[in-house]
């Protein structure tokens, strides 16, 4: 398929702009005037629509295919959310900062405040800040809050502890803020080894970062104890809330002992994934960390209106971590989702998510190695270890699934499982769909025994197959010349 | 069980699944959770239908007046968005997909993002670009960190004419690291070149500027590039994408790392997000770029295709040694930016820049004639400019807001010596009539 | 014939006149897969035995390479900047990474010889 630049023809136009109703201004000075307009494509609107419509059809997506990417919570995105997100399209964020401006944006401020309070209740935290623009951004903000907390106590801690099963953003976020990482291995029971954790723990640890339930889809039976031990040493405990879908309405990380949490609205709260964003990663904190929350902070005034707290009144704030209030358009959707589902709906989400994952686990168990043989939560992790003996890797099974019309599960994560296959169906999938996926997985296992080469030939039904990633990395062509 | 949570399975199917698993209730599947960790409170409102939800959210949105004439910028700009942008970004195959980890079933997203990268390179005059960052402010912070990696130095010199919001974000990002950040206050509303000359030394990793700056002034950065390079430092500039249709590209000016916010390109104001940040640099620095990068390659039949590349830089491989912690970017917003640029096309985009320039220049000329009002910018501006009013700008803005005009950003909050100054933004959406009305009302509010 | 020594982290060393030529073993190169980039150490860099020396990237992984001996880096294999695949083709010969001016020849006693390394590899499988 051609690129848009390749179907471009000089002189073709798309959208027309209004004509100018002001006199033309004198030209820019020579040294500031661009000599040539940038080489953007020149196509008609029809050509553009055809190009991108056809391009989009090369994607698998939740709306077209079962998409059990473990750790990503690819649940259905209700269309009513799309409708409401556009209602605030023309709201300028700077209005809130103008004198008298906040009276013109009460609706948006109320929504943000409302969302924060709902998320605080859901997670068991005292307050939620909506600013982080993605999960990883939330993690970094959380680490910054923890650092500010220790600094305020006159302590300069050195380390952050993570389990070896953690998502890479955990150590990356901590390292970005100057901490050294201590990695604790996973015990045979599937979570951070408690004894090794106790050995690693010391008074120079700033934080322990855990995913709850963890990236293997398992709930750590010692999680409260780990929180206690961390607190005894003066460390705070951070919850990576990416897997919240498993425990909505059932466990609140705040109640367990976590001090900080980030949420992924594009996972748990059904906002679309967008092909890789935009997401939204609000951060929740316990009372003791509120003074450090980023600026600007929305406050409900005595007269019942919403306004922004003045920066001067919040001297301990870590400052700004984004320009405005966060990805507002994403947050409208999450707010609407929570409003629609309500208390009972959210509880039902975690029940059905966990049920669906365990159903898949039970049916695939005879065919794939299960590193942790117990009920899982919202996702199950298999290993293609058995298939490896025939020379078949997890990636080959993934490519075969594409031919069978399924987006593959996550493969090769978490790192502590060899040939990992992580399956998260989510609560929005029917038994029928899961049965079809299970059949395909069982077929893959059977083909691996009988004729492994067939899997290595997959996928055969897609426009391209087995792309040369080495060539891409070596040649680094990231832009059409 | 009410079906408000989009869970399709019937009680019968659920019973069947429980049977296969070997339990009688769903509750048993949560057995691993100790009883004392079960939630003590979950006070949420009861759910509602989509119709009631829409009514509720609409009632919030309706509180915002629709008919305000927007003359404010400050990082977010009121631009036209062709209908085709919403339409294509609304394709479910684009917006309900995720990160293209499996390239064979994600060529839609991958090729579109490659086309986006190409567009950014062409706009900025740089060799390589990534597939987007979160926004302009965090992109600037990432540029600072990137420059420190490239030069292995720990001093950042940043211009005081850079947006105060952006400078605050850079400071927050670097607060826990042993980095020296030097702010050079503005001189007459533009870069204090002598100030920079004395601040930049062999310890400096990067000089950071914004062009046009927060006051709207456009500058030729060539001499700053030379100053930086003479000391082995890099020059990073945050640019306004619409200006690139008319103004010399930062690449041509000698900038090493270009960043900016793509909101002006096809992303609605939406009370501050989402938009996207862009970053572009020279090919020699590609390994130090943060975020996702799409690369071109071939498959085993020799067919052209696109993949996520240089992933070894990223957090899922390098973990604590990654160039950044970024995982999700702002893919759909970047695609909106691409669709915007393609819809306008080469000629249309240049025309858009010209329209913005002409309208702002007209407004500037009208305001300059108001008694007691002066234009502070010493030279060229693009689409924003700063007025010095005869009185405190804050109350003027407040009174004009009541008259349905968002007059601009009063600067006193961030530049205490500029309490009477107002930065006004004029885009292609503002008509001559709106500008004339604004001038008339401004004269009444500020000059009498 | 100069003896080759091996570390547990799959680096090899050959010493001549107090200068150690070092690289990664074929086993390590195979484990990494197609190498896309070698981040060579800076000439003049001081290293400690088993401390971090540099890193090697493949498509799916980024591996730290550890110095098998202490000393100062005096030369690096610049050919690898353009053609990192040489390490895949000839890890223990043309794919050498660096020369280190050794601080202490006795450190070789902390490494394995060919038979020892061979046995070590068999133990890993």
Distance between the termini of chain B: 67 Å
What is the residue-mean pLDDT of chain B, rounded to a whole number? 94
The number of helical elements of chain B comes to: 14
Q: Approximately how much helix is present in the residues of chain B?
A: 25-40%
Largest interface: A-B, 205 and 215 residues
Task: Kindly name the structural category of chain B.
Answer: alpha/beta
Percent helix of chain C: 10-25%
Report the principal-axis shape of chain B. globular
Overall mean pLDDT of chain C stands at 91
CATH topology-level fold name of chain C: OB fold (Dihydrolipoamide Acetyltransferase, E2P)
> What count of domains describes the coordinates of chain B?
3
CATH homologous superfamily label of the largest domain in chain B? Type I PLP-dependent aspartate aminotransferase-like (Major domain)
**SSE topology string of chain C:** EEEHEEEEEHHEH
| Approximate shape of chain C | globular
Give the quaternary arrangement of the chains. Answer: heterotrimer
Comma- or semicolon-separated keywords:
heterotrimer, B: 448 residues, alpha/beta, Aspartate Aminotransferase, domain 1, Aspartate Aminotransferase, domain 2, seven-stranded mixed sheet, 14 helices, 15 strands, 37% helix, globular, C: 125 residues, alpha+beta, OB fold (Dihydrolipoamide Acetyltransferase, E2P), six-stranded antiparallel sheet, three-stranded antiparallel sheet, 9 strands, 21% helix
Structure, described:
The complex is a heterotrimer of chains A (481), B (448) and C (125). The longest helix of chain A has 37 residues. Chain A contains 15 helices and 12 strands. In chain A, the strands form 3 sheets. Chain A has a 7-stranded mixed β-sheet, sandwiched between helices. The mean pLDDT of chain A is 95. With 481 residues, chain A is of the alpha/beta class. Chain B is α/β, with parallel strands linked by helices and 448 residues long. Chain B folds into 3 domains: 34 residues, no CATH class; 113 residues, Aspartate Aminotransferase, domain 1 (Alpha-Beta Complex); 258 residues, 3-Layer(aba) Sandwich (Aspartate Aminotransferase, domain 2). In chain B, a hairpin with an 8-residue loop joins strand 11 and strand 12. Chain B starts with 10 loop residues before the first helix and ends with a helix. Chain C is α+β, with helices and mostly antiparallel strands and 125 residues long. Chain C has one domain: RNA polymerase II/Efflux pump adaptor protein, barrel-sandwich hybrid domain (OB fold (Dihydrolipoamide Acetyltransferase, E2P), Beta Barrel), CATH 2.40.50.100. In chain C, a hairpin with a 4-residue loop joins strand 1 and strand 2. Chains in contact: A-B, A-C, B-C. The interface between A and B is large, with 205 and 215 residues.
């Amino acid at each position: 398929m051609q690129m848009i630049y390749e179907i471009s023809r000089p002189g073709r136009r798309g959208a027309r702009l209004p004509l100018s109703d002001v006199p033309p201004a004198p030209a820019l000075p020579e040294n500031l005037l661009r000599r040539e307009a940038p080489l953007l494509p020149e196509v008609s609107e029809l050509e553009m629509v055809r190009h991108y419509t056809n391009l989009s059809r090369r994607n698998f997506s939740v709306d077209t295919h079962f998409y059990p990417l473990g750790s990503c919570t690819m649940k259905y995105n209700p269309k009513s959310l799309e409708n409401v997100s556009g209602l605030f399209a023309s709201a300028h964020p700077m209005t809130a900062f103008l004198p008298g401006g906040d009276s013109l944006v009460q609706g948006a401020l109320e929504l943000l405040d409302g969302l924060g309070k709902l998320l605080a209740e859901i997670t068991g935290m005292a307050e939620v800040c909506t600013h982080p623009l993605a999960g990883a951004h939330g993690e970094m903000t959380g680490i910054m809050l923890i650092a500010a907390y220790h600094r305020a106590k006159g302590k300069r801690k050195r380390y952050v502890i993570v389990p070896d099963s953690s998502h890479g953003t955990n150590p990356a976020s901590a390292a970005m803020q100057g901490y050294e990482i201590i990695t604790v291995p996973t015990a045979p029971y599937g979570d951070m080894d408690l004894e090794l954790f106790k050995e690693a723990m010391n008074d120079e640890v700033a934080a322990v970062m855990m995913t709850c339930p963890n990236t293997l889809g398992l709930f750590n039976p010692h999680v409260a104890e780990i929180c206690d031990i961390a607190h005894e040493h003066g460390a705070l405990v951070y919850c990576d809330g990416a897997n919240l879908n498993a425990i909505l309405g059932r466990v609140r990380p705040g109640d367990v002992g976590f001090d900080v949490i980030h949420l992924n609205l594009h996972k748990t709260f059904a906002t679309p994934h967008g092909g890789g964003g935009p997401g939204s990663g609000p951060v929740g904190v316990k009372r003791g960390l509120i003074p450090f929350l980023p600026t600007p902070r929305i406050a409900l005034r005595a007269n019942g209106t919403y306004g922004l707290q003045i920066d001067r009144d919040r001297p301990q704030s870590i400052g700004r971590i984004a320009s405005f209030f966060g990805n507002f358009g994403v947050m409208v959707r999450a707010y609407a989702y929570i409003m629609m589902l309500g208390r009972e709906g959210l509880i039902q989400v975690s029940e059905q998510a966990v049920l669906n994952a365990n159903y898949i686990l039970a049916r695939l168990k005879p065919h794939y190695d299960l590193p942790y043989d117990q009920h899982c939560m919202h996702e199950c992790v298999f290993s293609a270890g058995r298939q490896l003996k025939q020379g078949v890797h997890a990636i080959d099974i993934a490519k075969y699934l594409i031919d069978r019309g399924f987006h593959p599960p996550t493969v090769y994560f978490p790192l502590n499982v060899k040939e990992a296959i992580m399956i998260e169906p989510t609560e929005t999938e029917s038994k029928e769909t899961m049965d079809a996926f299970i059949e395909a997985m069982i077929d893959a296992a059977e083909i691996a025994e009988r004729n492994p080469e067939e899997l290595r030939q997959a996928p055969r039904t897609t426009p391209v197959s087995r792309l040369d990633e080495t060539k891409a990395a070596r040649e680094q062509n990231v832009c059409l010349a | 069980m009410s079906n408000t949570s989009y869970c399709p399975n019937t009680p019968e199917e659920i019973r069947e699944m429980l049977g296969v698993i070997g339990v009688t209730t769903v509750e048993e599947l949560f057995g691993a959770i100790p009883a004392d960790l079960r939630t003590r409170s979950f006070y949420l409102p009861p759910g509602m239908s989509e119709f009631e939800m829409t009514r509720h959210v609409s009632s919030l949105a309706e509180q915002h007046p629709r008919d305000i004439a927007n003359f404010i910028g400050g990082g977010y700009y009121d631009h036209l968005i062709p209908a085709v942008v919403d339409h294509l970004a609304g394709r479910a195959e684009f917006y309900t997909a995720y990160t293209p980890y499996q390239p064979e079933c994600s060529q839609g997203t991958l090729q579109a993002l490659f086309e986006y990268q190409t567009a950014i390179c062409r706009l900025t005059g740089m060799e390589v670009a990534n597939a987007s960052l979160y926004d302009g402010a965090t992109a600037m912070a990432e540029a600072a960190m990137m420059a420190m990696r490239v030069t292995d130095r720990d001093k950042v010199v940043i211009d005081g004419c850079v947006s105060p919001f952006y400078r605050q974000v850079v400071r927050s990002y670097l607060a826990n690291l042993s980095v020296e950040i030097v702010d050079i206050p503005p001189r007459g509303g533009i870069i204090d070149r002598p100030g920079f000359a004395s601040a930049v030394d062999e310890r400096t990793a990067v000089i950071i500027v914004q062009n046009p700056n927060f006051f709207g002034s456009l500058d030729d950065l060539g001499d700053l590039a030379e100053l930086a390079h003479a000391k082995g430092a890099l020059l990073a500039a945050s640019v306004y994408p619409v200006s690139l249709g008319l103004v010399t590209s930062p690449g041509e000016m000698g900038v090493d790392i270009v960043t900016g916010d793509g909101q002006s390109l096809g992303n609605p104001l939406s009370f501050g997000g989402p938009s996207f940040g862009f970053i572009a640099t020279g090919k020699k620095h590609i390994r130090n770029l943060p975020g996702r990068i799409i690369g071109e390659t071939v498959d085993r039949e020799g067919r052209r295709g696109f993949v996520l590349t240089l992933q070894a830089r990223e957090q899922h491989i390098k973990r604590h040694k990654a160039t950044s912690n970024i995982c999700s970017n702002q893919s759909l917003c970047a695609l909106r930016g691409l669709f915007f640029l393609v819809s306008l096309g080469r000629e249309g985009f240049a025309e858009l820049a010209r329209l913005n320039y002409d309208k702002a220049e007209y407004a500037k000329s009208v305001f300059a004639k108001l008694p007691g009002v002066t234009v502070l910018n010493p030279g060229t501006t693009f689409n924003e400019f700063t007025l010095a009013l005869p009185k405190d700008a804050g109350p003027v803005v407040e009174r004009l807001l009541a008259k349905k005009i968002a007059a601009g950003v009063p600067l006193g909050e961030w530049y205490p010596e500029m309490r009477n100054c107002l930065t006004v933004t004029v885009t292609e959406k503002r008509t001559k009539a709106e500008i004339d009305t604004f001038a008339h009302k401004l004269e009444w509010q500020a000059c009498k | 014939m100069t003896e080759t020594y091996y570390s547990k982290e799959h680096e090899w060393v050959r010493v001549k006149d107090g200068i150690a030529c070092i690289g990664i073993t074929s086993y390590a190169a195979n484990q990494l897969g197609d190498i896309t980039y070698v981040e060579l150490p800076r000439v003049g860099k001081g290293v400690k035995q088993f401390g971090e020396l540099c890193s090697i990237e493949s498509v799916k992984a980024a591996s730290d390479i550890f110095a098998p001996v202490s000393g100062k880096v005096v030369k690096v294999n610049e050919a690898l900047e353009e053609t990192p695949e040489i390490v895949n083709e000839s890890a223990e010969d043309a794919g050498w990474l660096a020369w280190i001016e050794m601080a202490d020849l006795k450190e070789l006693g902390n490494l394995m010889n060919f038979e020892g390394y061979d046995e070590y590899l068999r133990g890993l499988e």
